[in-house]
Amino acid sequence: MRTLDHMIAGSAAGAPASRFSDIFDPNTGKVQARLGLGTAADLERAVAAAAKAQPAWAATNPQRRARVMFNFKQLIEKNMQELAELLSSEHGKVVADAKGDIQRGLEVVEFACGIPHVLKGEYTQGAGPGIDVYSMRQPLGIVSGITPFNFPAMIPMWMFGVAIAVGNAFILKPSERDPSVPNRLAELMLEAGAPEGILQVVHGDKEMVDAILDHPAISAVSFVGSSDIAHYVYQRGVAAGKRVQAMGGAKNHGIVMPDADLDQVVADLSGAAFGSAGERCMALPVVVPIGDKTAVALREKLIPAIEALRVGVSTDPDAHYGPVVTAAHKAKIENYIQMGVDEGAELVVDGRGFALQGHEDGFFVGPTLFDKVTTGMRTYQEEIFGPVLQMVRAPDFETALRLPSEHQYGNGVAIFTRNGHAAREFAARVNVGMVGINVPIPVPVAYHTFGGWKRSAFGDTNQHGMEGVKFFTKVKTVTQRWPDGGVSGDSSFVIPTMG
Ligand code: NAD
Fold first, then answer.
1. Residue 483: what pLDDT?
2. What is the pLDDT of residue 435?
3. How many CA atoms lie within 13 A of 327 on its CB side?
4. Is the Cβ atom of 385 under 6 angstroms away from ligand 1?
5. Distance in angstroms (rounded) separating the CA atoms of residues 164 and 473
């Protein structure tokens, strides 16, 4: 059985692990490899290598650092197919979607190729008599990222693409469920010219996460995962004096106005609710048609579209989506479906008991549709993270606006309409961090920033774009005066002003 190890100081050879977790092939349900779970001692080795490499990396001029990012971009493009197949084999998303996962991370690396421009500071000449003020953004030192299973390429690159380009050393703790692509990314960064110790990968579970949160040499932690863990990471990291951003779960709503193009809505919803088996934090698992007439018409079109979805192995080029990540996650989704029935929602399409011929032990869940879901139901309040679409009927615009606004999660939301005024009003008033107008998955492009509100994000800076640069740097502001040689000699006991 293949065993996967950390990537510390440029090599995969580490101290032998005493605890392991299984890496499954979700298509077959079989264990395909095992992962050695690290300890505080493994982290210590990574921190030592990072501390050795980081000062010289920070002192390397930004254009040279950007060239490494550029080489890395080219290597990812060259290895795209291999990376996508590897990602798909552990996660279960179809290969085309795995390429999208890599591509969206690569776009942050492309942003990082322009880091010399981005790092230029502010300057004021003559802020006072003979006084100039300027600022510089300096790296934090050693920083860390803890990432979820559902985007094993994109989310690490959101973080380290920016963190490394601005001069930090980065220690990645990826999900235990699909750890191979993160290791490959670290190998490719070395090949691109990053010094050993600048991008390292340590594997593990809570024990490793706690070691990261408590380590005094790690200045900042970026986390993406479920909300309870995000909150925990935020609290423990901040208590240890670190800068922490912690993104959590989601329950994104799609509002359908009576004037929307329903055929387009059905096409958009099919992809956004069921793509990647619903295992996206920007999936659209709740649809809110306004008015019963809209609900009835939408439901009539949705049922055949959902029944026509093709669930297949992740290497099937015609499959719309593949298996979910583990047997435990499949059981959790199916429990939520039963809970929905018990709570009194109408189960219109039931995806339980789905078996793919020849892959009966794979972790497949068929597409599921509920109608007449109400806000008091647990299945509405909680994140299911599977191929389950819930319809909540709203009588009017104001009610529809209140649903996502009052939900505990506030990651993304979409409105489908032809009415520009309503869309504008919705975008301005909704209490959610990312809004799509006739765009079902409004993940902002790399040079903007990504982040939700409420229990979808703890901390105040978003991922990537200028917010990422801010998170991974600290600002130093210099106020300078170069005396002309004359002696001024006076002491001042009053706070200096420029007035
Ligand atoms: P998860 O919370 O189980 O795991 C995330 C990370 O935390 C992993 O690296 C894991 O090893 C670690 N971890 C797990 N249990 C821990 C514990 N008890 N203590 C400390 N660390 C622990 O999340 P997941 O199942 O891998 O990913 C799915 C979740 O991530 C969903 O809730 C999804 O919405 C969310 N997500 C959010 C965003 C976003 O940007 N808001 C993006 C992607 C995924």
1. 83
2. 98
3. 11
4. yes
5. 11
Residue 18 tokens read as 């005493």
**Could you confirm whether domain 253-437 is CATH 1.10.10.60?**
no
Q: How far apart are CA 247 and CA 457, in angstroms?
A: 4
CB 180 within 8 A of CB 206: no
Q: Are 29 and 363 in contact (CB under 8 A)?
A: yes
Give residue 487's pLDDT: 63
- pLDDT in the model for residue 14: 72
- Pick the residue whose CA is nearest to atom 35 on ligand 1: 225
List, by residue number, the catalytic residues: 281
Report the atom number in ligand 1 closest to the C-alpha of 451: 40
Confidence check on the interface: ipTM exceeds 0.95, yes or no: yes
pLDDT score at 54: 98
Every domain of the chain and the residues it spans: 2-248+456-478, 253-437
Ligand 1 near 456 CB (within 6 A):
yes
**How many angstroms is it from 48 CA to the middle of ligand 1?**
27
Residue-wise pLDDT for 6-44, tens only, equals 999 998 877 788 999 999 999 999 999 999 999 999 999
At 163, give phi and psi (nearest 5°). Answer: -60, -40
Task: Find the helix packing angle between 180-192 and 62-78, rounded to 10°.
Answer: 130
Ligand 1 site, residue 371, Cβ cutoff 6 A: no
* Model pLDDT, residue 484: 81
Low-confidence ranges of the chain (pLDDT < 50): none
Q: Quick count: other Cβ atoms within 10 Å of Cβ 348?
A: 16
For residue 225 and ligand 1, the question of a CB distance below 6 A is answered with: yes
- How far apart are the CA of 150 and the centre of ligand 1, in A? 9
Q: Cα(258)–Cα(260) distance, rounded to whole angstroms? A: 6
CATH number of 2-248+456-478: 3.40.605.10
